[in-house]
Design brief:
Blueprint: H1 2-13, E1 16-18, E2 23-25, H2 26-34, H3 40-54, H4 62-83, E3 89-90, H5 92-107
Antiparallel strand pairs: 1-2, 1-3
Helix pairs in contact: 1-5, 2-3, 3-4, 4-5
Length: 111
């Protein structure tokens, strides 16, 4: 189950943001935008990074932590989808891999 979580985080980091000349990985956008003060994207970048950190924390309620982590990480992607055109976010295959592996990870927990 730990490998599925790592696979999910790696696929999240490899979502590509298309620029005018080159594409950058989503993790670089998150890292640079956290320090871009005075911008609403800073909040969503912080939430995305917080979701990544939360996904590796141990807790008594792992399903709740995984759901919160998933919601925080998705908020950063939806923020980018709202601000840029859909062609600028190359998320199709990797984003679906991230969502599916995260959902499978949540469903594997014993209640």
């Amino acid at each position: 189950m730990k490998y599925l979580k790592i696979f999910s985080i790696v696929s999240y980091c490899l979502i590509m943001l298309m620029g005018q000349m080159i594409a950058i990985p989503f993790i670089l956008w998150l890292g640079f935008t956290v320090f871009d003060f005075g911008n609403i994207d800073q909040l969503f970048a912080f939430l995305g990074l917080l979701g990544m950190i939360l996904s590796f924390m141990k807790s008594k309620h792992p399903v709740l932590i995984s759901l919160i982590s998933f919601a925080l990480m998705i908020s950063a992607v939806t923020s980018r989808l709202i601000h840029v055109s859909i062609e600028a976010l190359n998320y199709n295959s990797i984003f679906y891999i991230y969502c599916n592996s995260n959902i499978i990870d949540i469903l594997n927990y014993k209640f």
